[in-house]
Write a structure and sequence with these properties.
Chain lengths: ~475, ~90
């Protein structure tokens, strides 16, 4: 039995057939983490009770649960009761949440065991994982390259088989882009599908948590566990949650696939361009109908996204004031002004990129500028939303690249924030419109780096998204390939 | 964008920035916002701002008090506390 080749769903069968215990499985992953984590820096903290919890699960015999005794890594944006949750920031370096986020609570209620917490860009602000206060995470396919971001630790740990499945969060592509860079499946659910309670807030109208897994079936099962209304999140939807994993369909005959015109107009890395073309051929072979659809405002969506995300972030991060929790700058005993107290704490506690975005957001919301920046961006946001609605009159899913290039080298883009932002061309519009998006590992570049293809569907139509993803997966070059570090 | 308006923004955001940070962020935000300003060319007359992407459905619960966390649990993460209070250094002005 080669655990490294098994999917999460295959592992569940082994647990149910008593061929392996949760204890053995958890021990297996803990030992791998001990050996490999120093190379990739994916885990920031471990759950010291993981083995005890696995033993308890085995004694309970509750193997009919959906995630029976499965050890999982969780992005450090999600609160885990009793386990440090830092958002990869100095500001929260010693924060130990007194409660679980709803996502974590739901995973545990179906038998999952938290293995540990995964590295990320500080407060999920970044596309390369280079903005972590605790050092960059590396791409297991090539240690000189970034794993993507901001859920880079989740992607890297999953690709290196340091977890059965992982959870990430996605505000402008933070699940899909690292999934593409690391050769795994990453699913951003519809806004409102998954409760945001207990997830450290970045941009509240854009944030969603979702699964990062070996394959589509695993993502479907994880999604049905974490989805559903939560009275603790007023924006969580009351729509019924389908059994995504049971409803996966092998045939996509007649599915209308809209290929994003803007992606066909050049500007893609040659390997990504080839991957997109191969993806179109795969859909044709599977019996889908292919159309071209256009989102004329795609290019502007990056500006709209960054203006809105920074504005919301500047408001959300106002809570870090050094009074109730988190970092407090050392103050002289003789006292300081209130301004000094707040400003020193925030100036020392936040990293470069976070400060940059707080500054951008504060400026865009300040008197005299709010109409030109924040409000204007929200108006264009509606136009982008409308353009998606128009596109979905013609098709069921939209096919595009996740990113214009495979993973880039560590250090290559970090000195130029604008260039780093422009890297998010194909992912931010999905969040602006609140739609579900999926990254499916599909090709390998000439340098043996994975390339994912992105699918986008109508709001709350994750089932169609997953079925289309399954068709791509059947034709993928990446499934079965293992990254270099293994 | 001028250093003065950046200084004012840093004050509003309650961020202490060094002179080096101030000049770096002035340069970077100028370039970034100059790029982002292109959206001003998009006509948006009579377009309502979209603030959140899905409709929020109201829901109700019984008006019953619940106690989930004790004061001790909440204060565990405080940088400094005394009794059941958050403690801060003397604030002058």
């Amino acid at each position: 039995m080669d655990l490294l080749q098994l999917s999460m769903c295959e592992t569940i069968l082994l647990i149910r057939e008593k061929k392996i215990s949760s204890y053995e499985l958890t021990d297996f992953y803990l030992k791998r983490i001990e050996k490999l984590n120093p190379k990739i820096n994916a885990y920031l903290a471990m759950n010291p009770e993981a083995l005890d919890q696995a033993k308890k699960f085995d004694q309970s015999g509750a193997t009919n649960q959906k995630l029976p005794g499965l050890p999982m890594g969780i992005k450090d944006m999600l609160c885990t009761k009793g386990i440090k949750t830092t958002a990869a920031s100095k500001m929260l370096e010693n924060f130990v949440p007194p409660y679980d986020s709803t996502v974590v609570k739901r995973l545990k209620s179906q038998g999952a065991i938290v293995l540990g917490k995964l590295n990320q860009d500080e407060f999920a602000m970044g596309s390369s994982n280079e903005n972590s206060y605790f050092g960059v995470t590396k791409n297991p396919w090539n240690l000189d390259f970034v794993p993507g971001g901001s859920s880079g630790g989740s992607a890297s740990a999953q690709a290196a088989k340091l977890s059965v499945a992982t959870i990430g969060t996605d505000t402008g592509g933070s699940i899909r882009q690292p999934a593409s860079f690391c050769g795994i499946v990453g699913l951003k659910p519809t806004y409102g599908r998954v409760s945001r309670f207990g997830i450290i807030a970045f941009a509240s109208s854009l944030d969603q948590a979702g699964p990062m897994t070996k394959n589509i079936e695993d993502a479907a099962l994880m999604l049905e566990v974490i989805s559903g209304h939560d009275s603790l999140d007023a924006t969580s939807s009351q729509k019924a949650v389908p059994e995504f994993s049971k409803n996966l369909s092998k045939s996509i005959k007649g599915l209308r696939v809209g290929v994003l015109s803007e992606a066909l107009q050049g500007g893609l890395d040659s390997d990504v361009e080839k991957s997109l073309k191969d993806g179109i051929e795969a859909f044709k072979k599977e019996g889908a109908e292919i159309f071209e659809v256009s989102l004329p405002l795609l290019k502007q969506s990056i500006s709209v996204y960054y203006l809105i995300a920074a504005s919301e972030a500047s408001s959300n991060l106002a809570r870090y004031d050094g009074v109730r929790f988190g970092f407090r700058a050392p103050m002289s005993e003789s006292g300081a002004t209130l301004d000094e107290f707040y400003s020193q704490t925030r100036g020392q506690g936040f990293g470069k990129e976070v400060k940059r975005r707080i500054m951008m957001g504060t400026y865009c919301l300040s008197s005299g500028y709010i109409q030109a920046y924040y409000e204007k961006a929200c108006r264009v946001r509606r136009l982008i939303f409308n353009q998606y609605n128009e596109a979905f009159q013609k098709c069921d899913v939209i096919l595009s690249p996740v990113a214009a290039n495979p993973a880039f080298k560590i250090g290559e883009k970090i000195s130029d924030p604008l260039q780093m932002y422009l890297n998010d061309l194909f992912t931010t519009s999905t969040n602006l419109a609140g739609l579900p998006g999926l990254s499916v590992p599909f090709s390998l570049s000439k340098n043996r780096l994975p390339i994912g293809l992105q699918l986008t569907a109508k709001a709350f139509d994750e089932q169609t998204l997953l079925n289309a993803g399954l068709a791509l997966e059947r034709n993928s070059q990446v499934q079965g390939e293992l990254p270099h570090v293994i | 964008m001028e250093t003065n308006s950046i200084k004012k923004t840093a004050h509003l955001a309650k961020l202490a920035l060094s002179e080096k940070e101030l000049s770096e962020v002035t340069e970077q935000l100028s370039a970034i916002l100059q790029h982002f300003e292109k959206i001003s060319e998009i006509p948006t007359e009579n377009v309502e701002p979209l603030l959140t992407p899905t409709e929020i459905e109201s829901f109700w619960r019984e008006d019953v008090a619940e106690q989930e966390l004790s004061p001790d649990e909440i204060l565990k993460n405080a940088p400094s506390s005394q009794g059941h209070l958050f403690k801060v250094p003397p604030v002058v002005g």
